Amino acid sequence: MTAAPRAITLKADIANLDSLFAFIGEDLDAGGCPQKERGQIELAAEEIFVNIVNYAYHDNNNTEYIKIDSHVRLLPEKMVISLAFTDYGRPFNPLEHKEPDISVPLKERKIGGLGLLIVKKTMDTILYSYEGGANRLEFSKSWQRRNNGNDHRSGENQ
Asked: For the segment 52-101, what is each residue's pLDDT rounded down to a tens digit?
């Protein structure tokens, strides 16, 4: 099963998290994603979406939208989902952001950075680019393919 890439554009508003989860959930369901990986993917997607909502468009006159591309692919023995978040806010490469020092006691830590650290640690790949005035953050996560013979998206047997 390799599904056609899909995309959705959402207004940069926390109220659209349910729409984001519904969009991603369709591909996770179709790919038979186990609960553990699903939770990691949803948490990473939420973190990226919320960061864009909260920080990308401050002092910016651009329309505040986020485009999310999703692509599920079948590889030998596993499924992979790639999610890409594109915004036209101010440039920000989260991969260059200094990771928080988690050895420091919680009360002494500076606020911020833990969500991005979780994304970096739980996703298989994470890439950032800035082109044509757009930030694009893409990550992927794989999981073991179920061996029940069903392709949930097309209804065909493998």
From this structure: 998 888 765 556 899 999 999 999 889 999 999 999 998 999 888 776 56
64 neighbors 12 (Cβ within 8 angstroms): yes
123-126 long-range contacts (CB < 8 A, ≥24 apart) are: 123/40, 123/41, 123/44, 124/80, 126/95
- Give the C-alpha separation, 23 to 5, whole Å: 12
pTM of the model: 0.83
Domain covering 6-144 assigned CATH 3.40.50.300 in the classification: no
Residues comprising the chain, all counted: 158
pLDDT at 1 over 50: yes
